[in-house]
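Project channel, design review

CF: Before we commit to the Hippea maritima constructs, I'd like one complete example in the thread so the newer folks can see what an input/output pair looks like. Taking Glycogen synthase.
RD: sounds good, go ahead.
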Amino acid sequence: MKVLLSSAELFGYAKAGGLADIVYGLAKSLKGLGVDVSIVVPLYGFAKDKILGEVIDLDENLKVVREKLYGLDVFFVKHSLFDRDSIYSENGKDYDDNHLRFGLLSEAVAKIAQSFSFDIVHLNDWHTALAAYYLKQTGFDGRIAFTIHNLAYQGVFEVEPEILKIDRKYFSHEYAEFYGKLNFLKVGIAFSDRVVFVSSAYLDEVLSGEFEFGLSGFIRNHSEKIIAILNGIDYDEFNPQKDRLIYKGFSKDNLRGKYFNKQKLLSELGLKSNMPLFAFIGRFTEQKGVDFLYESLNEILKLDLNFVVLGDSSVNYKEMFESIKSDRFVALYGYNEQVARRLYAASDFIVVPSVFEPCGLVQLIAFRYGSIPVVHSVGGLKQTVHPIDSNTCGVGFVYENQTKEELLDSLEEAIRLYKDKGRLSKIRKFNMGCDFGVIRTAKEYMSLYEELLGR
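CF: and here is what came back for Glycogen synthase:
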């Protein structure tokens, strides 16, 4: 079975969020299960001098560079449209030609799939969604799976369909049209053989009309081909016992290293060492609950705790967090994988106050590193984090409503747990022994591929 995974991001190469992690982890796991898997990503300007493999002409205007990356077979799409220093945007503003850039990526995916006789093309998010249309129009005899990692990002542009080589007859509400604009995600849903959401809880929310961003009716019309497969994390990469990015390794059988990581990070950040450490790790966006978190911080910092936030360098959020004056609060800007790992390893609790969350990887990584999640009960968070006194694998503090009062109640409950060292250690070890690995995810995708191919 030959599988072609396509994405705008790939861990270890180009990352803006969890998409990079899951694509890399899935590809690696599929390969370990014996699948002949390749990946397609753009060749971005920030990496063009490092990718030096075989150059292949797809046509007179489109080339790919084929190279091994971390043991995986990767096609890097080479074109001036990708010759940028960022993936999607610059100075907080999306590139004006993203429709052309990711339309081109989709076209390249289709050509690679045809040229190298792939059985399955697995698309991820709107950036590669148009490939489903291009493949179907050119008589591709394989099958197409399309995973939606976040329905909020649909790739909606005010452009004529012909610019993207889409027949105007498909510019209708049954296919590509969305309030007079062209919607990449709708095209992916319409022309793929199977559409995958990344948690069943999130899919239920969408089908009920919650967090559906104008597409619940369209999605219900395609319900016969829609399923859910829960994302997972790469347990080889996210392994606190062997992680070279943290100060000292540790395991559920020996947590001394976790305490060392905490004291070391607190010292570097100038925070007091006799309090529980809470952290937020993620993109600074409204969806991730950052606005809500900021509005709650003054009340949060009245509690006996340290709080660290790590995210991107968004100017607006940087100004917001810099207005918080406390010797128990630190904001770190510009996402850095090493800093993130050290924060996971050091933290007692990871706060995930997302407004909505398709799956979420932060809470899964937190489990792995012995940090207990405090989460809003939505989507994948609701599916993977169970009440603190539950016997179901993966426990934390779960609040139902996005209110300051409920968040503060959960934080206060977490602080009480922190003071009960024996119970705290027991819960850490319980979570660290849970299996939210991407191998389970890969096995479910393998079953899906085999079903699509009639095997």
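RD: helpful, thanks. The mean pLDDT is 96.
CF: The chain has two domains: 2-234+438-452, 256-432.
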